[in-house]
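Quick one, T. Sequence first:
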Amino acid sequence: SGQVVLRHARARQVMGEFGHVYKEQYAVALFNSVRFEIEGGGGPQSQLLHRKNPLEDHSIFSGGLFQYLEGNKKWRNRFVFVADTYDVSFYENKVAHERGLHPKGTINCAGYKALTSMEEYLDLVSTSLPGVKAKVGSGPFVKGATQFPLILWHPYARHHYFCVLTEKEQTKWHAVLQDCVRHSNNGLSEECRVQTPAFTDAVRLHRQAQGHYGTWDMMCGGPPQILANLVMETLYPELRNLIGPRLKGKIKQRQRNWMLISEAVYKQVLSQTQAQYEALVQACEVETPRLDAALRTDMDQIITSKEHVSGKIRALVLPRAEQLLRRSVQPYVSSILEALMEPTSRGFSEVRDVFFRELVEVSKNTLNGGGKDKLGEHMEKISMLAFHPVKMQSCYEKVEQLSLEGLQQRFDVSSPSVFVQRAQILMREQMDNAVYTFEQLLHQSLEEKDQRGENLCKTIQCCQDRVLKKYDYDSSTVRKKFFREALLQIIIPYMLKQLAPSCHPDLPPFQELIFEDFSRFILVENMFEEVVLQSVTKDIMMAVKEAAVQKRHNLYRDSMILTNSDPDLHLLGESPSVDWAAQFGGGDEESDESPEGCGRSKWRRRQVVSMIKLDGMGPLPYESCLEVPGEEEEEEGATPMEPEPNSPDNVQEIRYLINPVVEMVVPASEEDLAVLTNGTEPGMLTLEGEEEEVTLITTVVEEVHRKSLQWKSAPQEVSKQSITPYSLSTVSSGPTKGINQVYICLFSPLFKMREI
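Structure tokens:
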């Protein structure tokens, strides 16, 4: 039970330390929120409209996938449904989904990677256990049913294996799964002006206290998931070093057992962080009214006190920060900015091109005699363009080329994935803003007067031009903000790490200068970071400004403010999304009927991505089961269906994974009985062609009649019993003459139960 004690101790330690920091940062975040509310401020106003709930009454995708079942080494066809929450649910078949039955399972994709090759997957799996290198030909207990796999990999949670029949299906499903990962990773709401800043600052400060500066790839999902990843960051290597050397057997079995243990630990840690975080937030919210009242009463005094202490900290820190900035940061700012700007600007430019091409198609089809009925059908599809992962894939691929080669190690950037996903989220938001604005402008024009043919095309063209002009301005504003934030995320942790050894010892005396009543809202550590931030902000702003002046990557100058040519446009932003199919006709071929969520009609939920139709093929048989035998099943005789194994949920199950029990049935004569019960010693044993170490042997003796059939069923009966391998016991069934059956339980590496 050492690993369980370690898990509980580590989880309690991390959550205790985090909870203390979170309570401090919650008060600071509340102060900043109230101050912003009172003083106001903000950047340039967006020109495009923004809708609050774009995926209302929509699902993302659904269809058939083959899923690998670990229990019987078979691939079973599942109906997979991706809702507007981006959770991936899989059902026995489509009928089960339509009836509203519970899914077989649901995957929250936060922290996962969507892979399409076994080679890439094996590279990631090989890093889980030190000294274990898997080969492509013998993947970890997975043998593909087709050559088009889809794998969801997570460093701690369960891995999921799917495959499809064609490359076209693989491409579409991969884009959908990537979008699920992208959306699920973005689990912190920006609308929570207190909780989210308090949480992110607390996580960052906690990791910095452990010596981890810089970006973190596992800042994924909601707060409980991020906290579970925070615990596992320390716990995982400790468990691996404790348990890894004790896992025995073939490479595949060791990897499988370690992954089951990792999943079990992660699930238990996640349940702990979920409960403790909810209690932590509730405790902070209870205090919020009192803190808010104190802030609004003493805001002026608190600000004055903070500025007084900040000035003294600035006098101490600023000279050291500026020296570090000149020597180790300024020479690299332009290189970092260029590495960020090139792929990001290409991605936003591709968003503009995709939007433009879709509108050109609408104009062409309208001009060819489609009229308003056809317009409604096309606009219904364009309405969800930003959430169509296949159509947006070309945009996302542009920014995936972002590379910080040569700069990652210097500035302690784990990988550019943090910046890539952030840019992709911003691209999707800008695409949806452009689509929504175009919808509202076009709908307003169509309501004002009846238009057909060329007049309708001219109206579409006019709305398109207005929206593209607004998109160019907003795109420039969003990208400049993204570049500034990315530069800060790269540079500030590096500077804090370099300055901390010399500055931190001098900071505690400054806390004594703060009035006790204000000490919850003014923290010396936060002011130290603000001084470092101020020291580098000027250089970052100047670098981005120079890029705009040079008109590189279509950035507008900061001095350029777009005059509002649509003074009443903001009023349209309060309007609901246009139901084009209902108002202007057009089919709904991509809808998916489901009692789970009512669409715009009670039982209708529109689907963003169209179903996959394979040329020359009928619908997939959802009840079919593809058998893919593993290495142990090559001989004749199919293995009966078994339930898919779950990760161990208790100490005993984890113990059996580390030290497995092998059950053997040995027919023995009376002469052999004494040797088996009294003379069997632990040692080396050769089974299935491999020599394995046996640490403990327990024998159970039972006498059965020679003519009885009991000996044939005994192995199966014994395999179902829980035999504790800690004692040696002899059981006799009575004086009946017959053949002695000896059940030997070997506490040893894994083997299949066999009859000797």
